[in-house]
Amino acid sequence: MSVLWGVSFDATPLSGVVVEFLKTARRFAARGHRVHLDLGYDIKADKGAFFRPYRDEAQLLPEWVTLDRVEDVGEIPGYDSAFAVRVLREVVQDGDETLRPEVDRVAGALAGKILATWERRGVTMVMVENGTLPENIAYTEALYRAIDRYGARHRLGRFVFWRDHDLMWQSEPGIAKYGRFPYPGIPAPRNSPHIHYFALHEQAKARTLDWVPGLANLDVLPNAFTIEPARIDNGNAGFRRDHGIPADVPLLARITRIIPQKRLDRDLHLLALLPGAWLFVAGDTGEAPAEHARLTALADRLGVRDRVVFGGWLTPYDTAVPGRYSVRDLLAHATAVSFLTSYDYESYGNPISEAIASGTPYLTSGYELYDVVYGSKGFRAPVLDIRARDLPDAAFAREVAELITDERRRADVVRVNSELGRAVFGTRVVDERVDRLYPPPMGAGTRLSVVLPVYNEAANLREVLGTLYDQQGIDRSRYEVVLVDNNSTDDTVDLARSFAARHPDLALHVIHEPEQGVSCARRAGMDFAAARSRNRPDSDPGERFYLVSADADCRVDARWLSELFAAMESSKAAIGVCDYYYNEDHFTGRPRLWDAIQRTLRCRAVTFSLFGGFPDGKGFAVERDAYERAGGIEIFYQLRDGEFVSHLSDDWDFGIKVASLGDAITYAPRSRVEINPRRVDHAIDEVIAGRAYGSGGTIVMRDIRPAAPAVRTDLTAAEARQAWEFSIKDFTPKNMILPVLLTPALLEDDAVIAFFGADLAARLARRIADIRDEMRVVDFTPIHAYKTPSYRLYFEFADELFACLRRHVGEDIGQPPPLPPCLAKVPPGRFAEFVRYYCEDRESGEAHDYFGNGGVF
Predict the structure, then answer these.
(1) CATH number of the domain at 439-676, please?
(2) Domain with CATH 3.40.50.2000 in the chain
(3) DSSP of 218-267, one letter per residue?
(4) 654-665 burial by CB neighbour count: b if 16+ within 10 A, else e?
(5) Which of 323, 382, 604, 836 is most buried, by the most CB atoms less than 10 A from its CB?
(6) pLDDT in tens, 344-395
């Protein structure tokens, strides 16, 4: 069984840090991990629990958590709470290096104890919470050493999840508790093949990179909250009564520690401006007795003492303890949550998230990171500008009064905040991010992952998933579906989850890719599947695993997957390419258009059977190791309306990369995909004009999904001829010339020689070698490298290439489209010379426009 070892540097049995650990660890516990948690008593000295045995702390935690700690650390000479306090003061705060040799000695001994404990427990994953905060730099250094040694010894990958809830610049920076930038005495995060770092928000990530430039594997992972309104029920109905709060008064809730940095005095001043309102302060009154006494005296002086309840410690949000009230119970009775904290003390501001998640409005001070975490996301609340005024004034009080007395306004605020909360830090969002980085293992028998990028495909999704579910000739345990949501705003994701719930015998995973573009989504899904496939239990190391691309607007035949799988297994090729077709019924009454499409697809079938062809996102498979050798789906960017967007030709470019590495591509003609006719209907005018994907020398791979219903009329004879010519001009360089340009050895294959004829095959081989030498090109893989020679070879050999197509496909293929007028005037003896100038078109883009982009068919 897999074992997850968690270590919290907080030294508290149930804090916000521990609660966030539990939320994340729950995801792994559900997959079968055994979860062990070290509360950090033997790390952090200021909580007074150093070496103290655990007592009843386990009662505060879920039953699937085992409280644990590193064994025998008390045997290390010189290591105790006094040592940790001294190192913090002298090395971290004062910069005195006198103790450094002793820190190194203790760190080495601690690392040995950590390693021994992990070995005995059989640890497979480690979660570090707040480990960068330098409460005990000897332990932090020991942890880094143990991670490197343990990871190397067991050949583990990135098995450490290292999350910092607080950092030096977020924790009491006014008193420089942890020194000052650049923090020379503190073990900085370091690049390790075993650690993935997480910050709570973009500002923390940016500041970390300022501190440690070049730090890799650092991502943003917000705290997680279940967005569900807190309700009054049998368990908490007596909350107000038990605390002496009238049932009908507005109640402000303050759910923070009672320490000076939290600025609870602001709440008392606000309460004085809100007659009739009450304030509940949830926090340990014994943590800072002087502060509690000061606040009590202030409440007396302001005349609000009878409306303030210091209710003591409540169990944290999302954690229930029998016989105790929780923060969620308080929020069920609260009218609003107050968070008038100091400017530079807070970072994430969990009480705000807890309020949003519970369906409770909030009010806040404009602390340093408020806009980073909440304000810039659009969350609604009264915000006290504490840089302009330290205490609430009448204007701010009026804004709060309107919020807590106007039910319609309050309901509107709750609705907006809840929707945003679900999208920004809802449990599902965080779970999906964790699954992307630490994907769950797949079944031992699974051999294929079907990756389905989706964006607002609610209208098509049921049928698409239905065709994937109803595959014949292959058991459902042999394949799975990875649906990649690319920021859908319709019901796509809900439909997918409902389908998964109704069909538990098909493994269907939903992940989210925030960067817009099908290339990004396809890569995310394939990376996710590839990583999971390496965790298949008890699998044969000789088995091949396949990543399969599908398209959410197409339909796959019943034997699509089984035929593709069989072709890949028998050929041992790196890529398998499907056959594509249209439903003829959709083109009833449009015979000219149907004829142009069918001629193109007939050409495709012949050339793909020879050369293997290139993959199309509508349906192809790639063997996992070949995918990784090629570096995965490569994301290209281009400008559109002054903004960079990802290029859509990732499937084509990926196939070229694989072929250029010498890996084979096979054609699986019995693995068939029905193309959605909208690809034709909504681009036909541009196909006719030869600008379906751009013009003027610029290719624009754009989304051609319909904005309005298509007008389905047939083409005129002239339009049909024009559409065919652009289609075949797009097809011939890509599917007849490019394969042999990338792999000249194909021209020695018997079947290819039979297709071209021995003489033409030999001349093509010589001409490719001449052009390669003339252009000084050593790699035809990049798009700027292969287009020019492909165009040149087309013009030089067009008549013979079309003769081959007429011979092997049919006489109706006809003659090559007319030459550009400029080339028609060139003397025959200088034709190849001027073709070169035309195709390189350094300024004009004429060749791009001539060949057009009729590849929609």
Answers:
(1) 3.90.550.10
(2) 239-428
(3) EEE----B--------TTTTTHHHHTT--TTS-EEEE-S--SGGG-THHH
(4) bbbbbbbeebeb
(5) 382
(6) 877 788 999 999 999 999 999 999 999 999 999 999 999 999 999 999 999 9
